[in-house]
Amino acid sequence: xxxxxxxxxxxxxxxxxxxxxxxxxxxxxxxxxxxxxxxxxxxxxxxxxxxxxxxxxxxxxxxxxxxxxxxxxxxxxxxxxxxxxxxxxxxxxxxxxxxxxxxxxxxxxxxxxxxxxxxxxxxxxxxxxxxxxxxxxxxxxxxxxxxxxxxxxxxxxxxxxxxxxxxxxxxxxxxxxxxxxxxxxxxxxxxxxxxxxxxxxxxxxxxxxxxxxxxxxxxxxxxxxxxxxxxxxxxxxxxxxxxxxxxxxxxxxxxxxxxxxxxxxxxxxxxxxxxxxxxxxxxxxxxxxxxxxxxxxxxxxxxxxxxxxxxxxxxxxxxxxxxxxxxxxxxxxxxxxxxxxxxxxxxxxxxxxxxxxxxxxxxxxxxxxxxxxxxxxxxxxxxxxxxxxxxxxxxxxxxxxxxxxx
Length: 406
Fold this sequence. Notes:
Elements: E1 21-24, H1 32-38, E2 44-49, H2 50-53, H3 56-66, E3 70-77, H4 83-92, E4 98-103, H5 105-118, H6 124-134, E5 147-151, E6 162-167, E7 178-183, E8 191-194, H7 196-199, H8 204-223, H9 229-250, H10 256-270, E9 274-275, E10 278-279, H11 283-292, H12 299-316, H13 324-330, H14 339-353, H15 371-380, H16 395-405
Parallel strand pairs: 1-8, 2-3, 2-4, 4-5, 5-8
Antiparallel strand pairs: 6-7, 9-10
């Protein structure tokens, strides 16, 4: 017999998580050499984009922190996360036995693909053909190059066992760009180094968008159908911390203490959500995928626009447990008579304080004539499997959410 709580959720759970070592605090990039030594690693190739690689305030603390364990810097990553870029990075590994992934999600993902490519002896052509056929790359059972992530944004690729990748026509046997990803428990980084001083160098607009993406991870983790008491605890504490930090950030405070508070919240909401065979990403992330798959709207902006409307929809559905009370507690509005309405208002205020767009018509995304296709993509997204218990939206209802966000 299955035990359930008062809201109908299954109270029995299995929590399988393989976390990396976490180093946190201002200046902790200085400890990179010590962390490599603790992991039994000798030399690391730094993987980053050209902007990070040419910005002394970001790259210097990392290279100096590695000291004699620095094998080199590969600064060729791009937002497109090209398979060809990872192939080039593999050629740069040489004597390195570790990767330090520095920057945003693109660099962290490319470093993960480099690790996978380095574990086998397949040619670029063989890998490209496999990717074109399957949308993924097989992860070898052994030989993966350990990764230490050093994020400079807040979106969450640093505590993940998945990575996105694209292949352009010149590196693929097909005539159009294709996208896909890789996933395996062994892809979780060996260590994640969170230095607020590095994150503080990121431009406000990029930081705000990635913060919204990370903030939504906390929201989704609480109402996901596969939530556990472990992830409830970390996500609730993380959201509380994030809400404080993001409100302060929105008020114009860019001090290192504010960045440290936000970063602490991001670490907490990420902890435990990317697990073997599953994730707590849910309906908002499904919308994010659908809204950005054919348009250039940034995912954090898409999340910010859509999340209040998704929450309002979920709270209005009979028989759906979207954890309004727990969200209200995390966001400090649990004294409100209507928890759902108070949560929507709090999330909207935080989004607006970050200076993010509030309407789909204000970004380079799909228009109303495309809403049916977007709605179908939302419902087909794998993350919908984690939607709040009892939620069974129709295409028309998803279109309604998009129209409300327009």
